[in-house]
Amino acid sequence: MKTVYRTTDTTVSMLRYHFVFCPRYRRRIFDIPGVAECFRKATGEACRKNHIEILDMKCNSDHAHLYVSAPPQLSVPEIMRIIKGATTHLLRDTFPELSQMPSLWTRSYFVSTAPALSEATIRRYTETQRTRY
Predict the structure, then answer these.
(1) Would you say 24 and 103 are in contact if contact means Cβ atoms under 8 Å apart?
(2) What pLDDT, on the 0 to 100 scale, is given for residue 2?
(3) Sign, Cα dihedral of 61, 31, 57, 68
(4) Which residues are 21's β-sheet partners?
(5) Whole-prediction pTM value?
(6) What gap in Å lies between CA 17 and CA 70, rounded to an integer?
(7) Do 19 and 110 contact (CB within 8 A), yes or no?
(8) Is the pLDDT confidence value at 3 over 80?
(9) What value, to the nearest 5°, has the Cα angle with vertex 79 and ends 78 and 84?
(10) Burial class, 96, CB count within 10 angstroms (exposed 0-12 / middle 13-18 / buried 19+)
(11) Fewest CB within a 10 Å sphere: which of 1, 14, 56, 133?
(12) Between the CA of residue 59 and those of 55, 91, 110, what are the distances in Å?
């Protein structure tokens, strides 16, 4: 994977997150024909609007994996709020069987940072910075 840094007038960043989240009661919503495609479409649109780049997305029967690159202005909970909110509305409006659920997603999720640089590379860089001056 190519290393790409996001730049603004004041920042240079590379923030990548791996999210895993599931529907309420681990219901197998992605087994319903069309749900996974609709989820991908809604997630893609929401991410584009918020300048979040989707690096990878997988839907298993009862959970979703999402690997994204996000701008530093967005916090991890805000990214999840954006994605869950956008997908909830579209999926519940499109699929009547999902509109019967009191809520589509659980409040919980797994998130992990996914650096493109190894820890050894970062340590080597910080050590060489000390010797520059």
Answers:
(1) yes
(2) 59
(3) negative
(4) 64
(5) 0.82
(6) 8
(7) yes
(8) no
(9) 100
(10) exposed
(11) 133
(12) 14, 14, 15
Give Cα 112 distance to the centre of its chain.
10
Q: What is the mean pLDDT of the chain?
A: 87
The sign of the torsion formed by the CA atoms of 87, 89, 95, 96 equals: positive
Residue written as tokens 């809604």? 42
Residue with tokens 């909830």: 88
125 residue type, one letter: Y
Measured distance CA(3)–CA(5) in Å, rounded = 7
Distance CA 121, CA 133 (A): 20
Query: Per-residue pLDDT tens for 80-116?
Result: 999 999 999 899 999 999 988 889 999 999 999 876 6
Find where tokens 């989240």 sit. 21
| Distance (Å, whole) CA 111 – CA 18 | 5
Q: How far apart are CA 10 and CA 95, in angstroms?
A: 43
Which among 7, 52, 1, 59 is positioned nearest to 35, based on CA atoms? Answer: 59
Structure tokens at 2: 């190519």
